[in-house]
Amino acid sequence: MKLTLLLLAGAFLIGGGGFMFFKNNQVPGHVGNETGDFAEVPSSPNAVSSQTDVEGKYVEPIPFSGDVEVARETLKTVLQNMGAIHLENVSDRYIHAVYTTNLMRYKNDIEFFFDEEARNIHYRSESRVGYSDMGENRKQYEMIRQKFEEQIH
Fold first, then answer.
1. Pfam families, from UniProt (predicted)?
2. Which of 22, 98, 103, 110 has its CB 3.0 to 4.6 Å from that of 125, i.e. a possible disulfide?
3. Cα dihedral angle (123, 107, 76, 58), rounded to 10 degrees?
């Protein structure tokens, strides 16, 4: 009986771990929309966006002045200098980056859309696995915004 329970528990842990590994290494289907219309944030507390009305998940778009190419190159430099962030897709008006946590190697998808007319960079970040991120996506947004503003001014 004990052996059966141990085997079932082991199978459950291996299966759950395998599912988390698979999900952590798959880019979500809603990521990559270069038109600037980000997917809505999930109901779980592991995402923030400048394009949501959901209380507690909204962050301000990052303002820029001057040339959009300068803003894009500045943001790319900020992201590359932060470490643990890999640029997955960069186009004229869109950047998709992936941040990988140090300890557990969890991945967060970060999207930026450059709104030339409004002179804003829209932002969305979501953890691929887990329910709560303990506020990490918001902290990451604040760090990126601060470093961008320091570089651009």
1. DUF1499
2. 110
3. 10
